[in-house]
DNA sequence: TCTGGGGTCCTAGGACCC
DNA sequence: TCTGGGGTCCTAGGACCC
């Protein structure tokens, strides 16, 4: 008996936010449901987070203004976005996936990769689907591939609720003539640049010399694009939980804020609020950035490094204001955002007092004391 | 269709140093 | 005095994704 073949499975929940809402309000089943903003489609500056398939049938899409969604689907039920509920539902689902005792890499609220050694990956996928629906009441699609890109692409064919497979030897047969922009990771800007190089299809991309791509896209992205054209790289499923690099909040105001003093005050409050949120995790803040958008959609970010990493809300807020004051604002503000960046976690060991840090950490301590 | 919020990673260019 | 070359740190912005 040989070793079973290695597969990557991509699990993607169907219409996740809408499904979570329907699960707790079963009377909504079968109705068009639109989740987004505060759930009031008459208020501007709010967009659709997720539309149920019934709403999608009327042309409602993610990212569309709620007002437009209501125009397209007047009978839809509009619901406010309820993050804590989706966080909790996501945790339920991921827990079911982890119960299979395979590496699980969480991609977001409603997606994960699984690393599976099996001679019958479809059977495994069916077991996953069955377990998820039995234990959470939510349905999902599963894609199977040799790479993450292939698995993710197959999921697109499996939605909603089915299983599909795309392997290395079928890649060009099934995607060779497709536009390069069909590939996960190639957005509109990159697709446009590729077209300017005469690269239109996936096959074109796979045949392009990596040096040519590097010249246009840089030494990392260029060669990576070619790998995408070839069906993806061998990046493994990483079960280690991701450590957040930072945390941010931003808010688009229903009407623009004309008073700079008011805006400044909000920067202060947002910064303090962020640090209060993050402090229990013990991650000290090293940088703070402020984002501003005006009515014309002019959007800029300013950032700065704190004199020293800190958990003190007042210190972070003060620095946020220093950064904010570098804007020369003469117009009303549509959006305000604040982002904090955390220091690198001390690798492999719990947080240590700087005075007693050893080894690699000690080097960091030396370097930081040498800064002017 | 007047355009959300929360992330990640990469690149460019200036400052500064040797 | 016409001007090197490399390295690192830092900030701003681009691009993409869910």
TrEMBL record:
<keyword id="KW-0548">Nucleotidyltransferase</keyword>
<comment type="subunit">
    <text>Monomer.</text>
</comment>
<dbReference type="InterPro" id="IPR024728">
    <property type="entry name" value="PolY_HhH_motif"/>
</dbReference>
<feature type="binding site">
    <location>
        <position position="12"/>
    </location>
    <ligand>
        <name>Mg(2+)</name>
    </ligand>
</feature>
<protein>
    <recommendedName>
        <fullName>DNA polymerase IV</fullName>
        <ecNumber>2.7.7.7</ecNumber>
    </recommendedName>
</protein>
<keyword id="KW-0238">DNA-binding</keyword>
<keyword id="KW-0515">Mutator protein</keyword>
<dbReference type="GO" id="GO:0000287">
    <property type="term" value="F:magnesium ion binding"/>
</dbReference>
<dbReference type="InterPro" id="IPR036775">
    <property type="entry name" value="DNA_pol_Y-fam_lit_finger_sf"/>
</dbReference>
<dbReference type="Pfam" id="PF11798">
    <property type="entry name" value="IMS_HHH"/>
</dbReference>
<dbReference type="InterPro" id="IPR043502">
    <property type="entry name" value="DNA/RNA_pol_sf"/>
</dbReference>
<dbReference type="GO" id="GO:0042276">
    <property type="term" value="P:error-prone translesion synthesis"/>
</dbReference>
<dbReference type="GO" id="GO:0005829">
    <property type="term" value="C:cytosol"/>
</dbReference>
<dbReference type="GO" id="GO:0006281">
    <property type="term" value="P:DNA repair"/>
</dbReference>
<dbReference type="Pfam" id="PF11799">
    <property type="entry name" value="IMS_C"/>
</dbReference>
<dbReference type="InterPro" id="IPR022880">
    <property type="entry name" value="DNApol_IV"/>
</dbReference>
<dbReference type="GO" id="GO:0009432">
    <property type="term" value="P:SOS response"/>
</dbReference>
<comment type="similarity">
    <text>Belongs to the DNA polymerase type-Y family.</text>
</comment>
<dbReference type="Pfam" id="PF00817">
    <property type="entry name" value="IMS"/>
</dbReference>
<dbReference type="InterPro" id="IPR017961">
    <property type="entry name" value="DNA_pol_Y-fam_little_finger"/>
</dbReference>
<keyword id="KW-0808">Transferase</keyword>
<feature type="site" description="Substrate discrimination">
    <location>
        <position position="17"/>
    </location>
</feature>
<keyword id="KW-0460">Magnesium</keyword>
<dbReference type="InterPro" id="IPR043128">
    <property type="entry name" value="Rev_trsase/Diguanyl_cyclase"/>
</dbReference>
<feature type="domain" description="UmuC">
    <location>
        <begin position="8"/>
        <end position="187"/>
    </location>
</feature>
<feature type="binding site">
    <location>
        <position position="110"/>
    </location>
    <ligand>
        <name>Mg(2+)</name>
    </ligand>
</feature>
<dbReference type="InterPro" id="IPR001126">
    <property type="entry name" value="UmuC"/>
</dbReference>
<keyword id="KW-0239">DNA-directed DNA polymerase</keyword>
<dbReference type="GO" id="GO:0006261">
    <property type="term" value="P:DNA-templated DNA replication"/>
</dbReference>
<keyword id="KW-0227">DNA damage</keyword>
<keyword id="KW-0235">DNA replication</keyword>
<keyword id="KW-0479">Metal-binding</keyword>
<comment type="function">
    <text>Poorly processive, error-prone DNA polymerase involved in untargeted mutagenesis. Copies undamaged DNA at stalled replication forks, which arise in vivo from mismatched or misaligned primer ends. These misaligned primers can be extended by PolIV. Exhibits no 3'-5' exonuclease (proofreading) activity. May be involved in translesional synthesis, in conjunction with the beta clamp from PolIII.</text>
</comment>
<feature type="active site">
    <location>
        <position position="111"/>
    </location>
</feature>
<dbReference type="InterPro" id="IPR050116">
    <property type="entry name" value="DNA_polymerase-Y"/>
</dbReference>
<keyword id="KW-0234">DNA repair</keyword>
<dbReference type="GO" id="GO:0003684">
    <property type="term" value="F:damaged DNA binding"/>
</dbReference>
<feature type="region of interest" description="Disordered">
    <location>
        <begin position="343"/>
        <end position="372"/>
    </location>
</feature>
<dbReference type="GO" id="GO:0003887">
    <property type="term" value="F:DNA-directed DNA polymerase activity"/>
</dbReference>
<keyword id="KW-0963">Cytoplasm</keyword>
